[in-house]
Amino acid sequence: MHGEPGETLAGRYRILGLIGRGGMGRVWRAYDAELDREVAVKELRLSDEIDDAERREWYARAAREARAAARLHHPGIVSLHDRVIGDDGRPWLVMELVAGRSLDDVLRTDGPLPVRRVADIGRQMLDALAAAHAKGIVHRDVKPANVLLDGDRVVLTDFGIAALEGDATLTKSGVQLGTPAYMAPEQVRGHAATPRSDLWALGATLYAAVEGRPPFQGSTHGAVFVAIATEDPPPPTRAGPLTDVLTGLLSKDPDARPTPESVRDLLIPQAAPPYGGRPPASPEATLPAPGPPPEPAPVRTAVGLRRILRPRSRPPTRRPVRTAVDL
């Protein structure tokens, strides 16, 4: 199967049209004939320069990562429904089809977003990453193209799949390691990605959302890598109260980056309602206004209580007195 409209995968998923493409695959909109619903289907495509042994290793990793991603259940993470094998042995991943546009598409067409909207996006992304990290899964490719905006809902895609892509080294022939502008400095240096690497990428994504451009740019991938490893990002001009959050997340030293809890505490007050803004009213403020005092209950005396508690009874009938003559 080549992944073309009209083709059917695994006798069940009929390809409808292309949604997007990346360095290692394409995502298609498809129709699930068994459950009568539309889904997203991702095909994994590897470079022809990879030999058979490497290809089998990548496919095995895809299987492991798919099983890990399938264990993630969170409203901010796209759901993985199925994994099937094509006629040529390539794995295909069947995922939830999320309506709406990617953050990357929004920034390209609409420009930078307001601070409060960016803070809300960051809060939801942070919650999704925390859920994945708790399961031992590092995303490794957090970027605007992997953030879907479905109304007020923010959804991260490519969990597990991106981890597969990120395992390659920079010198691996024919393999693109994520997206250069959103790679943490330690990834650029060839070190393993960690949850703190995802936090750096979160900072780079929020920087791009509020400033309209990524924090590091260059004419070539190599120039971007050098900038990430050696330079500080230009101070943001539109971030306002988010400036400290972005600066902390984009620290070169992974240990110097703030914790997810502290980042969340900084994002919530800046987020658009209902997730942020003014704090909720205190419980005292929601109590009803006091009314007039109740009238005092009547005081009962001991005599009164005896009268209430003593049951009424008929007076006893006097028995006749018998005399000795009667007996």
Automatic annotation (TrEMBL):
SUPFAM superfamilies: Protein kinase-like (PK-like). This is non-specific serine/threonine protein kinase. PANTHER family: MITOGEN-ACTIVATED PROTEIN KINASE KINASE KINASE 20-RELATED, SERINE_THREONINE-PROTEIN KINASE NEKL-3. Residues 269-327 are annotated as: Disordered. GO terms for molecular function: protein serine/threonine kinase activity. ATP binds at K42. It comes from the Bacteria. Signal peptide: none annotated. SMART domains: S_TKc. Its EC number is 2.7.11.1. The keyword ATP-binding applies. Residues 307-321 have a biased composition (Basic residues). Keywords: ATP-binding, Kinase, Nucleotide-binding, Serine/threonine-protein kinase, Transferase. It comes from Actinoallomurus acaciae. Residues 13-268 form the Protein kinase domain. The keyword Lipid biosynthesis does not apply. It holds the Pfam family Pkinase.
